[in-house]
Every structure is written in C-alpha cells, then in structure tokens.
Fold this protein.
Amino acid sequence: MKATLTILAALAFTAFAATVSHAQWYGPTYNAFGNSGYYRHASTAYEGYLRGWADLHRGVGQHKVLDSIAANYYQDAYSKAIDNDLKATEAYFTKRQINREARAAEALPKPTPQQLAQYARERAPERLSTTEYRPSVGKVYWPATLNDTLFAAERAEIDDAMAHRTMGDAGVGSESYVRINEAATSIQAKLKDNIRSMSPTEYLAAKKFVTRLAYEARFAPGVEGVAMR
C-alpha cells in the first residue's frame, strides 16, 4: 500500500512540475494522423497542483476499490471451499452410515446356543450301527476295503482300544479316544495315498466308516444311542 502511494505521489509531482513549466502555454499539437489541434494545459501553477492532487486521490481511491473487490472475491472463494469440504465430509459419513445400515439389514441374526447345538448335531457324523459295532463286547465289524493288510496295524490298535474301553475311560480326551483317533487319522492318510487303487465308491465308503468310528469314540460304551441303528 505504501509503495503504491509513493508511486502515485511521484506521478503527481511529475505532473505538477510539468504543469508549472507550461502553465501558460497554448499552441498547436499534432496527433498520430497529422491533424493539428490545441492541447490546453493548466492555466496556473495552483490549478496544476490541484489537478495532480486530485489524480493522486483518484488513484488511491481506485486502489482501495480494487482491493475491496479482490477481498470480496477471496472471501467468496474461501466460503465456497469450506462448503465443498463440508459437503464432502457429510457425503463420506452418510455413505458409511448407509453401508452399515445395509449390512445390518442383510446380516442374519446371531444363532442362539440352542440353535448352535442343533446345528452341531446335524453336522455330526452318524454313530456306528449294530451291524458295524457291538459295544457289549467292543467288537468292530470292518468293511472289506479296510480289511486289507495295508491297514492291519491301525485295525489292531482300534480293536484293542474299543474292546477295553470302560465307562471311566471313554469320551473326548480319554486314553482310548486318543488311541482310536490317532489310528483313524493314519487310516485316512493311507486311503488318500492309495486312492487310485480303489473305486470312488470304495474310497468314500471306507473314509466315511473311519470318520464315524472316530466319532463313536467320543461316547462311552452303553450310552444311549450307541449302535442303535
């Protein structure tokens, strides 16, 4: 601002000096097209001074007007930028809220403990039937595929564990349960390694039998439901 006032003051002083030097001059002048005319300067030094001072104030006023216009433009742009930021933020959180509500609407209600228990029972393997296992003597009746000598060691381990189970040594974590499940896991691995040597039906039937046998080891002999089918 100070620099502007200094420049305007210098221009006014220059105009004032020129006016003083030619205050009484009247004479012909020529424009760019060669036409003559008269250019009239201030009639007195005081008039030139006043003209220069008026030009100075006019320039200062115009500068203030332009500064005010520029400030208004800046303020308007700043206000619009804030509005845009607010709108973007509101849109972001609105989308998140809509997304949460949509997920909640689509989500299934959490199952109750009773429903979980029912689901576990439905997913559990079937227990061995009386034609596959006799709990009174601990006898397992193996399908033909698993009677192969390839599974002789595992069969012997399971037969011994099933025959010597008692009410006190049964269920998950018991010694007999661990022995039976380790042997069943070994049979499953051998079935997978020799899958090409048997038909799909034989492989699936043998695998299902071993799974059911390992599941039967969870229950103590004589518990209701054992070998009832």
Remarks:
- Residues 10 and 112 are 91 Å apart (CA to CA).
